[in-house]
Amino acid sequence: MRKLLLTCPARLPLQFRVLYRQFLLRVVDLEALSIEADIPRFLGQFAGILIFISLVQAIGALWTPPPPGFAWHMEQSAVSHMMLVVGLIVVLTWDSTFPDRRDAMVLGPLPIKPRTILLARIGASSALLALTIVCLNFASSVAWSLVFAAARGTGVFLRFLASYWLTMIAASAFLYGTVLTVQGLTAFLLPRRLFLRLSAILQLAAFGLFLSVYFLAPFIESKSDLIAIQNQPILAASPVPWFFALFNECNGSLPANATWLAHRAWIGLVCAAIGAAGSLLICYLRTMRKTVEEPDLIPAGRGLRWTLQLGGSLHSAVLLFIVRALNRSRQHRVILAFFYAIVCACALGLLHHAPKFGSTMPVSPDFVVLTIWMMVFAVLGFRAIFPLPISLTANWVLRITQLRSPQAYIGAVRRSLILLAVVPVLMAATLFSLSYRPFSQTGAHLAVLTLLGFILTEISLIGFYKIPFTCSYLPGKSNIQFVFWGCFVGIMLVMLFILNIEIPALQSTLESGLLLLLFTAAAAALYTLNCRRAHSAILYFEEPPPEVLTTLGLLSALPPTSIAKKP
Question: Does a structural domain hold residue 299?
Fold first, then answer.
């Protein structure tokens, strides 16, 4: 799969082939994620995970087929899942299709036509998108087509399969074109510096929009819901029902009164394609000069400034440095946004299952599970980006100005992590807990959640003797398959803890007290351990490469008698 992505037909121009390969390796900042900085290997592992997910979905669909009345729900779920995954991939490759300063400075003086650069960029982004679509649907498309055809009673398997692939490709192209249109228009209408600042906001807003559409999109249970007049404004506002109607129109099962939804999908796809094509042409022909002529950083405005005080000047400085580093670095924002996308998904799940305004309900397992996941992924998100450097300038400036002990810097990092990751989740969980009764159980769970946040913070600081974003980073340490299976096992263990220990403990005051005592002891032990190790710790700003001893293998080539013989 990875060789197929990196290989271009020989009949294509040489310039296009070279640029396509380079842009494909730069479509995402993968050097910090790939094993030993081997980006093709990373792409292969990424494809393997998607293939595994597709196989699991196919086996589940064939092993336990849904009842006939549940087929429409599964069709909408398939479209919704595909649009969510493609939307997240598109946001991850936010700036990959448009030229940056390096492209303008390096490729500008060369005899390369702008359209060649444009086509190579589009080909690289489309290749990653195609990899996602094919690997995520190659097995599940066959299984769901068999199930859908059997549920309809028509037996037209090939028509359902063709409709499935056409719908998934159309939905992916719609999202891709819409994002390119928004980026191109903002890049053309705004100055370069303002566009870069607004681009970060749009990128995070796109994450939230895709998640909101995924969790809040209406589901159609029957044909009567599809053609009901009162449901038409809701269905017209979400693209998921559009492409669900397109899928049913292609397979011949859409009612005549609902064809307007399928037409809306075609209109949206055409508008997205025209907008994306126009935005890319304008960007490469008119706004590419802005990349070189205008600076990337906008000067700070004058006015009243206020800095948050966090227990001292050092703690406030570390917190302010972390916040400003996240504001400047797209790479760190993207990684953090992926973790917080899961946090927001959990929050939307709580909002979706919350009782109506003014009413209450007993403490449910959904509330306990989702709030714990919010805490876990919020802390893991910041811990994942802290080792990645922001710039070499921050490295040497903080190194030569180290005026305090390492213990003080580690304490500042601890407070910053608690303030940025733990406190927001606690505030959100407290607001959600107001709809649940009794207060004794919600209070006990919030106390457990608070202690869990402190425990995760202390675990994150074990061996972390550096200031966030300032230590040089050796790429290639991450293993996406190891992370995937590690998260899978961790999720299972946490779920077992929640279902078997915490939820039963909330029913008893004595058991709740014992659980809180156990968490308090664990948090105190980890805090003491980190404080003791911080006394003798040394802050480091350069990550040394591993020492690898290379042998010539001469001993294995000699006979055993000569090795044992003394000189």
Answer: no
d(CA 47, CA 61): 21
Q: How far apart are CA 460 and CA 417, in angstroms?
A: 9
Neighbours of 493 (CB within 10 A): 9
Q: For residue 556, is it within any domain? A: no
If 0-12 CB within 10 Å is exposed, 13-18 middle and 19+ buried, where does residue 542 land? exposed
| The pair of three-digit structure tokens given for residue 45, joined into one six-digit string | 């592992």
C-alpha closest to that of 310 among 301, 327, 322, 328: 322
Identify the pLDDT of residue 28: 58
DSSP letter, residue 64: S
User: Are residues 269 and 168 in contact, defined by beta-carbon separation less than 8 angstroms?
Assistant: no
- Whether 454 shows a pLDDT value over 80: the answer reads yes
User: Is residue 368 a part of any domain in this protein?
Assistant: yes
Residue 468: is the preceding peptide bond cis (ω within 30°)?
no
The answer to whether the beta carbons of residues 240 and 170 sit under 8 Å apart is no
> For position 155, what pLDDT does the model report?
54
Contact 172, 86 (CB under 8 A): yes
Alpha carbon distances (Å) from 177 to 86, 133, 160, 269, 273: 12, 16, 25, 8, 5
For the four alpha carbons of 290, 291, 295 and 297, in that order, the dihedral sign comes to positive
What's the rounded Cα separation, in Å, for the pair 486 and 494? 12
Q: The tokens of 171 are what?
A: 């939905």
- The whole domain housing 451 covers 325-535
| Helices 365-385, 423-433: crossing angle, 10 deg rounding | 170
How far apart CA 58 and CA 278 sit, in angstroms, is 39
Q: Are residues 271 and 380 in the same domain?
A: no
What one-character-per-residue DSSP string does 94-160 give?
TTSSS--HHHHHHHSSSS--HHHHHHHHHHHHHHHHHHHHHHHHTTHHHHHHHHHHHHHT---HHHH
Does residue 17 lie within any of the structural domains? yes
Reduced to 3 states (helix: H, G, I; strand: E, B; else coil), residue 54 is helix
C-alpha span between 277 and 438 (Å, rounded): 57
The residue among 449, 448, 444, 452 whose CA lies nearest residue 428 is: 449
pLDDT at residue 426, rounded to an integer: 94
Q: What is the pTM of this model?
A: 0.74
Q: What is the pLDDT of residues 288-323, one digit of tens each?
A: 666 656 555 445 555 445 556 666 778 888 888 888
Domain count across the chain: 2
What pLDDT does residue 455 have?
94
Percentages helix, strand, coil for the chain (3-state, rounded to 5) are 75, 0, 25
User: What are the pLDDT digits (tens) for 497-547?
Assistant: 877 888 888 888 898 999 999 999 999 999 999 999 988 888 888 776 666
**Residue whose entry in the numeric block shows the structure tokens 């909408």:** 76
Cα–Cα distance between 331 and 37 in angstroms, integer? 16
Q: Are residues 148 and 249 in the same domain?
A: yes
